[in-house]
Amino acid sequence: MKQRDIFIAFFRSSMLGYGGGPTTIPLVQKEVVERFKWMDNEEFGDILAIGNTLPGPINTKMAGYIGYRIGGIPGTINAILATILPTIILMIVLLTTLTAFKDLAWVQGMTRGVLPVVGVMLVVLTKDFLQSSVKGLRWATVALHVIMALFLIEFLHVHPAIIIASLLLFAFFKPVKKDTTIKKKGRSA
Amino acid sequence: MIYLHIFWVFFMTNLLGYGGGPATIPLIQKEVVDRYGWMTVQEFNEAFAMGNALPGPIATKMGGYIGFQEGGWLGAVLAVLATVTPSLILMITLMGILYKNRTSPRVKRMTAYVKPTIAVLLGVMAFQAFFDSYVQISVVHIIILAAGSYWLMEKRKVHPGLVVLSSLLYGAVLLS
């Protein structure tokens, strides 16, 4: 049962994820957090954060880890196969038989049609994360973090992995004071 | 020898490719086209375009296809393993440590500190999706798709899979 759910969750999010990495993130979140309730948004956010600081494709890291959490090593293998196998086989079959597939107008239309929907999903996720940020940190601290991160990523082109890694290290090494530690101001990044 | 090369190419490019699948594409091209000469730029671009037209993660599709071209099914398996395994082992190890200590104030603080930045990343990705749409299709279509999918998913609680499928159909019929 559990392994079947893992397969369904990752097969579905991968097959519906047109456009690679970013497209599948909200779909995986829907399956893992909302549909199967294997974890909450907090933990999903941690996975996304750690996944972003590590190299390699994001989907397989998320699938592999979540599969491991839910179903051990078989869960990992199951989740990864569900994520990658169907599309690799499609790719090999189509490229070795039908090279014109990608030029078909309706295939391109599909890729265009899904993009705004993914945009909406990402906006909703952004809102969720901002809302839960305000619960853990002061409002002004969140605003400061957002502005700093936006400035560093978009204008100075600092790689997000560097920002996340610095934040994680700072949070880890900053001395822990008694109670309300999380409410304390954090001015890093 | 060819198997060793296949493994090495995908192992190295994915360890160097920070930022997920799309970030590794130029690195893979460099190795596959310039260094080993397995494909021409034209062939590589064809494969990349095809990969983009299909669902699922891009890096594993490229690895699987190129591995298959050069080394048959064994080549495909090796390329995919080299793509997936190293970062996955790191991921499971690191997340395992965090999960085990999830009640510690330090780890809680890590979660709290990193959340606004994750929100920014998601927001930037959302902007990118709408911007790419704006370049490709008319604003009217974007508004119909965005408003329609928001209403269906958030207000009517329709399964996102169904909403995505409808948008694929919409695109195949109206945006081709």
Automatic annotation (TrEMBL), chain A:
The chain crosses the membrane at residues 79-101, 113-130, 159-176. GO terms for cellular component: plasma membrane. One of its GO terms (molecular function) is chromate transmembrane transporter activity. It is found in: Cell membrane. It is a multi-pass membrane protein. Its main location: membrane. Keywords: Cell membrane, Membrane, Transmembrane, Transmembrane helix. The keyword Cell membrane applies. Belongs to the chromate ion transporter (CHR) (TC 2.A.51) family. PANTHER family: CHROMATE TRANSPORT PROTEIN-RELATED, CHROMATE TRANSPORTER. This is Chromate transporter. It comes from Domibacillus iocasae.
TrEMBL record, chain B:
Its main location: membrane. It is a multi-pass membrane protein. InterPro entries: CHR_Transporter, Chromate_transpt. Pfam families: Chromate_transp. It is found in: Cell membrane. The keyword Nucleotidyltransferase does not apply. One of its GO terms (molecular function) is chromate transmembrane transporter activity. It comes from Domibacillus iocasae. It comes from the Bacteria. The lineage of its organism: Bacteria, Bacillati, Bacillota, Bacilli, Bacillales. The chain crosses the membrane at residues 7-28, 73-99, 111-131, 137-153, 158-175. One of its GO terms (cellular component) is plasma membrane. Keywords: Cell membrane, Membrane, Transmembrane, Transmembrane helix. Belongs to the chromate ion transporter (CHR) (TC 2.A.51) family. This is Transporter.
